[in-house]
Design goal:
The structure holds 2 protein chains of 2 kinds. Chain A is of the alpha+beta class. In chain A, 16% of the residues lie in helices and 19% in strands. Chain A has one domain (28-293): paralog of FGE (formylglycine-generating enzyme), CATH 3.90.1580.10. Chain B folds into 3 domains: 19-148, no CATH class; 169-201 and 209-330; 350-493. In chain B, 41% of the residues are buried. Classes of the chains: A alpha+beta, B mainly alpha.
Chain lengths: 298, 493
């Protein structure tokens, strides 16, 4: 009898870990007060790059978006770009032209010839945009969240449509770290749960027993309190938000002998050590994920 | 004072005492530093531990810390295997004492110097002690190789049931010897490029550089070093189990050359990674397949022996399938040491081969973080399954009997397999669940993994507490173990 009870208890514990996923479960709506259409100025000069603090110089000024590109911004872009014929829809995907990469036949390198490539999948339930056959709209709950499910081609096309571009890895790093010190996180030396959206950060958008970690609105970690959830003000030295956590950010570099594209900043789905400024993720450029987003520079 | 002296002598001069100390240290290090990550960190234990013990966690030094941590644990495991080998394989008593004392000083220095260096500020004195420890271990390895030299007349087999050359030289001894030689060379394969091309300030984990198309010599040698050292620890473990199970007969005659050739070819394959990365993998597959065939023969022999012995105990010469199965699993310790080798195929070898074969087609289409999960899981499982085999063997040496033997043995087998099975599913989840729907899979695999590991650690803790209590008894088991050899059948050869 004792053995049976033990077995039953174990079974119930295991079952509790097995709730079905409702990816459209309601989420709270918060205005963070951080305006997505703003840019931060990053002056030319030296900074420390990488885990081992190589002194590196960027010899030009540039500006970076203060927040990730939001669903609202991306929906507006899609409508304009569709009208202009910059992008089109085929087989339930928004696609666009890419002139291709030079192929070097590197080990594991795959050729990326000129052609149309996926920007976003329209049939993926994680896409927080609606399309009625004419117009794209951001789902109201997610309008001020980072746009996700965008491929590298889609992110690049967005930035270039407005004559901006994706940041290089070094531009991204400088924007995250500033030029003064060798901090591992954009806001400083240590990380707390309420500095950024990471796995088990216990933010109001997360339910680890069901759908897991979800995105937070852009600029969420700005020191405000949301329904009792206290955040720490966590911008980079240049005032840029979410440079650690929330979504991995596509960067622009195309390296010789490889077709991978690199992402920075960590995401809602990873532990804090992946939010360190120098950590790199990589992916094929057509991959779309609910944990991938981007921002532009100019 | 006398009581302390006798116990000290037991712990630091007898084989079983030395093994006990090394296992206890492994357990303490795993328990303490395991609290700094995973579920313990989530539960806030990490914060308490860091504050209480004044641990200095510099973010940029994380990779270096992790490297030193697993090197210290690996050194203790290598010491355990060495203690077993010096007692199981015939050699002069003074050689046994020299090897054991050198490696004991070595791994203790590696722990005493390495962990404070990594976790309590980078004191270079501690780093020096750590390096001195690693050097002593290497020196102990040289002494071991010399002691194992097989081509001496006194070590020719006396019983021809054991694999031997035409001249009567003991092929099992040749296998131990060749593994010790290639292990020494493979240690250098990490140490020399590490100090020549790199420096301690720029550390990296091998799994973080796998996608770089053009790898530096240092990166290639570190990847090779990691793979070969783990593989050789596993092969040495298999050879130890050969002695434990008194492997002999025709299968032994076939298996020993396979272990010898397999370990040499496998090692050469990993050394070739630097100059000829393209063909190195083929050589590695060849070598590992040959060595795994040797292990398969050990499993066949061992299971056949367990079944026959079990049936004989019941007065049966032959039995049906269920009687055979009952006989096979009646002793979880003796069954477990080889079952874990079989299970290793499902969670390590087959997965490794599958990933290698489908790398470009499947796994390189995933984000790097998903691929990295497989790589990290792969070698963690190989290392820990090897540890459970050694632990099961030690449980037998420690004299675990009756119900506690059954409980301990089955706890280790069932719960470690549960944990590693769950981790394997977690690693590969992207094959069968989309990112948006993965959370229940993540939850259930994490839960099962945690349950499995907790039970294994509790079983280990219980074993250690039992042995600790025994040390307080005047005539405890330890007092008989002081002079006990691991196996008496060594004399048979």
């Amino acid at each position: 009898m004792k053995k049976l009870t033990l077995l039953l208890i174990s079974f119930i514990i295991i079952l509790t870990a097995c709730k079905p996923v409702d990816i459209n479960a309601p989420a709270p709506v918060y205005d963070t007060g951080i305006e997505p259409n703003t840019w931060a100025f990053i002056p030319m000069g030296a900074f420390f790059s990488g885990q081992f603090n190589f002194e590196t110089t960027i010899d030009y000024d540039y500006e970076m978006m203060v927040t990730h590109v939001t669903n609202q911004q991306f929906a507006e872009y899609l409508n304009e770009a569709m009208k202009d014929g910059y992008i089109k829809i085929e087989e339930n995907k928004v696609i666009g032209y890419y002139p291709g990469d030079e192929f070097h036949d590197g080990r594991h390198e795959e050729e990326i010839p000129a052609g149309n490539y996926i920007h976003i999948p329209l049939d993926d339930p994680m896409l927080r945009l609606d399309y009625d056959g004419q117009i794209f709209t951001a789902q109201p709950t997610w309008a001020n969240h980072p746009v996700t499910m965008v491929s590298w081609f889609g992110a690049k096309a967005y930035c270039e449509y407005y004559d901006w571009r994706l940041p290089t890895e070094l531009e991204w790093e400088k924007a995250a770290r500033g030029s003064e010190d060798t901090r591992p996180y954009p806001w400083g030396e240590t990380i707390a749960r309420n500095n950024a959206n990471l796995i088990t950060s216990r933010d109001p958008f997360e339910d680890m027993s069901s759908f897991g970690s979800r995105t937070t609105p852009v600029g969420f970690y700005n020191g405000k309190t949301y329904d009792g959830y206290v955040t720490l003000d966590s911008p980079s030295p240049y005032g840029i938000y979410d440079m650690a956590g929330n979504v991995w950010e596509w960067t622009s570099n195309v390296y010789e002998e490889q077709h991978y594209r690199y992402l920075r900043g960590g995401s809602k789905d990873v532990y804090e050590n992946y939010l360190r400024i120098w950590v790199r993720n990589s992916s094929i450029p057509t991959y779309t994920s609910s944990g991938f987003g981007f921002r532009c520079v100019k | 004072m006398q009581a302390f002296k006798t116990r000290f002598n037991y712990l630091f001069t007898s084989t079983k005492g030395l093994i006990l100390v090394a296992i206890a240290l492994c357990a303490l290090i795993s328990a303490f530093f395991g609290s700094l990550s995973g579920p313990m960190a989530d539960l806030g234990v990490k914060t308490v531990i860091v504050k209480t013990f004044g641990i200095d966690l510099v973010e940029a030094e994380r990779e270096g810390r992790v490297i030193i941590l697993y090197h210290t644990i690996a050194m203790a495991v290598i010491a355990i295997e060495t203690y077993m080998i010096t007692d199981l394989v015939a050699m002069k008593e003074n050689q046994r004492v020299q090897i054991n004392s050198t490696i004991t000083f070595g791994y203790l220095a590696a722990i005493i110097g390495g962990l404070p260096f990594a976790y309590w500020g980078t004191s270079w004195i501690m780093h020096g002690i750590y390096i001195a420890g690693l050097t002593l271990i290497f020196f102990a390895g040289c002494l071991l190789a010399y002691a194992l030299w097989p081509w001496r007349n006194e070590y020719k087999v006396k019983n021809t049931a054991y694999a031997h050359s035409k001249s009567g030289y003991d092929l099992e001894r040749v296998a131990f010897f060749s593994v010790s030689i290639v292990t020494l060379a493979s240690a250098l394969f990490g140490a020399i490029p590490g100090s020549f091309y790199g420096n301690g300030f720029f550390t990296f984990l091998a799994e973080n550089v796998v996608r770089e198309p053009i790898k530096t010599t240092l990166q290639k040698s570190i990847i090779g070093h990691l793979h070969i050292m783990l593989a050789l620890i596993a092969i040495a473990c298999a050879l130890i189990i050969c002695r434990y199970m008194d492997f002999k007969g025709i299968l032994h005659t076939i298996a020993m050359p396979l272990f010898i050739i397999g370990s040499i070819v496998l090692s050469m394959g990993t050394w070739l990674v630097v100059p000829f990365e393209g063909i190195a993998h083929t050589v590695i597959y060849g070598g590992s397949t040959i060595a795994m065939l040797g292990a398969l023969l050990l499993v066949i022999y061992s299971w056949d022996k367990l079944i026959k012995t079990g049936l004989a105990e019941k007065g049966l010469k032959k039995g049906n399938f269920f009687q055979g199965l009952t006989a096979l699993v009646r002793d979880p310790i003796k069954f477990g040491v080889t079952w874990q080798m079989v299970f290793m195929n499902f969670t390590v070898s087959f997965i490794g081969i599958f990933v290698a074969v489908k790398l470009d087609e499947i796994f390189r289409n995933w984000p790097f973080m998903d691929e990295k999960l497989i790589l990290t899981g792969h070698w963690h499982i190989l290392a820990t399954l090897t540890a459970t085999i050694l632990l099961l063997y030690y449980a037998d040496l420690a004299g675990l009997k009756g119900k506690s033997r059954q409980w301990f043995g089955w706890s280790i087998i069932i719960f470690s397999d549960l944990a590693f099975g769950a981790v394997t599913v977690y690693e590969l989840k992207r094959l069968f669940v989309e990112e948006a729907y993965q959370q229940p899979v993540v939850n259930i695999t994490n839960l099962l993994g945690d349950i499995g590991l907790v039970v294994v650690l509790l079983a280990l803790a219980a074993l250690m507490v039992w042995r600790l209590i025994d040390l307080f008894k005047k005539n405890g088991r330890w007092s008989q173990e002081v002079h006990e050899k691991l196996e008496s059948y060594v004399e048979e050869k």
